Task: inverse folding
């Protein structure tokens, strides 16, 4: 990683939001339902908030994207609350927000599931890049990992551990399939590495699982346009792979999205072996359940001249106010609603 990324990019220590609203439309990979997702600027300490709108006269529902909002992790990460699921397959847009260093945003969605687009985070990255980011005159708050937290389930394991600088991901998959086999990736995650190496890696699935998935109500929107489809010995998509290890890269992308539900950027390293959404969620829940394993730290102090410049920027594009979000970090994250479950 280049040093100037730390000074100028997502590690600079101040919170960010979008410069202007941006939108993405498509269908959900599991539901097949169309949805438009509009990402709006938000003020500091909002965090990422999903707002489900357009439900036939029902009031809009709002949910803060954090680990306590996860209601399901089968095949995708689903956010919801006591009233039920609110938004399915949140992981790729969350990965884009986290990977590009967007701290605050309102994500309005008018359907039950985030559009799958091409199966990667590329469309969300493009939308955010088109809108651009502004920094806000408030220090970024990080979660620094103080000691290893590990979850093992059968042959899967996941661990968050201290790391000297920034956020690192190390991910290994091992599929008994000639096209995939054992793949390992490791990245120090910063906006340009995320954009270049991870954001374009696509969702994948096996032909042999399709009938089972369909009968369970999953993958109803899946197609060659949004999923790498693998039969017994080869890839069926005519365009081929974007990376030889696209499968492991996509798993890393998923993990970045799932770990974005920490509610603040992590300072640490995550290692996942044969993992998935369920494991990612279990490790993050285990971290939050152990207050001795992490501490909240603020970004560097802001110089006065930068603060003034930022005020001017944000006067033109007043971020939308919401009632809750990151602000509950200091008091709220210690007690998750439930413990890890990776059975
Ligand atoms: Zn995924």
Result:
């Amino acid at each position: 990683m280049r040093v100037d990324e730390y000074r100028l990019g997502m590690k600079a220590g101040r919170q960010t939001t979008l410069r202007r609203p941006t939108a993405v439309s498509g269908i959900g990979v599991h539901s097949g339902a169309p949805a438009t997702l509009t990402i709006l600027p938000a003020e500091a300490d909002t965090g990422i908030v999903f707002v489900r709108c357009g439900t036939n006269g029902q009031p809009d529902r709002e949910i803060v994207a954090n680990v306590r909002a996860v209601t399901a992790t089968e095949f995708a990460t689903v956010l919801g609350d006591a009233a039920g699921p609110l938004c399915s397959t949140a992981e790729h847009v969350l990965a884009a927000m986290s990977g590009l260093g967007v701290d605050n945003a309102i994500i309005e969605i008018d359907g039950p599931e985030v559009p799958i687009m091409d199966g990667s985070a590329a469309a969300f990255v493009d939308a955010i890049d088109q809108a651009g980011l502004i920094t806000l005159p408030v220090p970024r708050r990080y979660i620094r990992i103080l000691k290893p937290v590990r979850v093992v389930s059968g042959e899967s394991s996941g661990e968050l551990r201290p790391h000297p600088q920034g956020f690192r991901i190390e991910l290994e998959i091992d599929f008994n399939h000639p096209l995939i086999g054992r793949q390992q990736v490791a990245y120090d995650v910063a906006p340009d590495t995320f954009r270049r190496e991870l954001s374009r890696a696509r969702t994948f699935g096996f032909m042999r699982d399709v009938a089972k998935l369909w009968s369970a109500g999953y993958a109803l929107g899946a197609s060659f346009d949004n999923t790498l489809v693998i039969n017994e010995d080869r890839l069926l998509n005519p365009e081929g792979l974007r990376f030889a290890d696209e499968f492991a890269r996509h798993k890393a992308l998923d993990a970045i999205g799932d770990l974005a539900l920490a509610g603040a950027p992590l300072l640490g390293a995550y290692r996942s072996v044969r993992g998935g959404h369920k494991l990612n969620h279990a490790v993050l829940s285990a971290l939050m359940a152990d207050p001795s394993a992490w501490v909240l730290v603020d970004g560097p102090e802001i110089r006065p001249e930068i603060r003034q410049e930022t005020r001017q920027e944000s006067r033109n594009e007043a971020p939308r106010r919401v009632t809750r979000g990151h602000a509950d970090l200091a008091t709220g994250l210690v007690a998750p609603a439930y413990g890890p479950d990776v059975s």
User: Anything to note?
Assistant: The longest helix spans residues 246-259. Confidence is low (pLDDT under 50) at residues 1-11, 301-319, 321-343. The first strand starts at residue 14 and ends at 18.
